[in-house]
Amino acid sequence: MPGSHNVGHVTSPFIARPELLDADPLTATGRPVRWGVVATGAIAATVTADLALLPDAVLHAVSSRRADRAAEFAERFGFATSYSDTDERLGYQALFADPDVEAVYVATPHAQHAEVVAAALRAGKAVLCEKPLTINARETQQLVDLAREHDVFLMEAVWTRFLPSFQRALEIATSGEIGTVQWVGAEIGFRARQDPASRLWGRADGGGALLDLAVYPLLWAWGTLGLPEAVTALGTLNAEGVDAQNALTLIYASGAQAQITTSLLARSPNTVIVAGSEGWVRAQGPDAVYRPTRLDVEVSKGEVRTEEFELVGSGYVHELREVTRCLQQGLTESPVMPLEHSLATMRLLDGVRAQLGVVYPNDER
Ligand SMILES: NC(=O)c1ccc[n+]([C@@H]2O[C@H](COP(=O)([O-])OP(=O)(O)OC[C@H]3O[C@@H](n4cnc5c(N)ncnc54)[C@H](OP(=O)(O)O)[C@@H]3O)[C@@H](O)[C@H]2O)c1
To answer: Which residues have any ligand 1 atom within 6 Å of their CB?
Structure first.
């Protein structure tokens, strides 16, 4: 009928089965899983603190490039063992050789993910690896092939996907309540110190805003509109050829669009808006783009409905519950965060980097 809206219910590619996500993440789901942690940096500490909250997680070993850091980290979180070596490879190889380690959490900079994860998979260890899984799609494909060849679990740590608040936002956005989703705007930015030694700026470490941050705003577009037909990208590169900030427009066959920006120059509010033909959903909270604690929904002008969410731990407990549950059930892949989604992400990011002109040493190997 001319002029009518197509307010159909659509299915988000990310909506998990409720029984996977509704349960308390701190309730044990089976036998204990024995963990090893690779690296002792910022996120390793935050995620390990959440891991320690799981009653069916055993903090068995940690490895670092430096013995003192490994020992301190072990002491701080209560690991039974720590490994290190002046040759950084030997530290994690010792951890992977430990038969008491069943699962490893890899929290090195992106450029090391491919090598470290490959070594873990070859040793038969289940792997949860920080995002982005690798620097490019070729490396991700190699890890996926290796995981399947060795029949071991592998998952990229896209933790936001397991948060009840994110899942609820997708449910609202695709339920028809706000009509048909036509536009998504999502951004993330912080001012990264101009330190040439920082992993965020170095080409060798896979620095730049895109690889570090784009996964989060992309989740909102992908989760509500699917993967785009095309992406156009503009970026500002630093002298080393690493992107300091960038702006992406995602274009869909339906005519829908999404705008995504990431920045290492600007401290932004991390805004997310999913706008439909009849209304909108806005993620709220200080870290709304990756850890929303409130959702605002407006369908009638000026009448905003809100839904509040409590954070458990720092929010990582949900992905850690998922890995634990998968291992307890003998799964080699998470049905919520499948490897095909990591591959699709890396293919999209490869395409964006080609437009921006950002090339890393890993691309040339
Ligand atoms: N999920 C999230 O919310 C989140 C948040 C932040 C970062 N991340 C991801 O986590 C990863 C690490 O980020 P981060 O912020 O924790 O970085 P970070 O603070 O620099 O820590 C990285 C750690 O990796 C080890 N490392 C550093 N350089 C290395 C190298 N060349 N080879 C091997 N190991 C090296 C170091 O540990 P040792 O000295 O002990 O060896 C270092 O402390 C990145 O891929 C990032 O995208 C995820």
So the answer is: 39-44, 64-66, 69, 88, 107-110, 112, 130-131, 157, 159, 199, 212
Q: How far is the CA of 230 from the centre of ligand 1 (A)?
A: 31
Fold topology of 18-159: Rossmann fold (3.40.50)
Round to whole Å and give the CA distance between 200 and 198. Answer: 5
Q: Is 123 helix (H, G, I), strand (E, B) or coil?
A: coil
Domain 164-308 homologous superfamily, CATH: Dihydrodipicolinate Reductase; domain 2 (3.30.360.10)
For the CA of 91, the closest atom of ligand 1 is: 41
Rounded distance from Cα 184 to ligand 1 centre (Å) = 30
Name the residue type at position 201.
W
Instruction: Determine the Cα–Cα distance for residues 82 and 95; give it in Å rounded to an integer.
Output: 8
Q: What is the pLDDT of residues 226-260, one digit of tens each?
A: 999 999 999 999 999 999 999 999 999 999 999 99
Enumerate the domain spans of the chain. 18-159, 164-308
Q: At 86, is the pLDDT very low, low, confident or very high (cuts 50, 70, 90)?
A: low
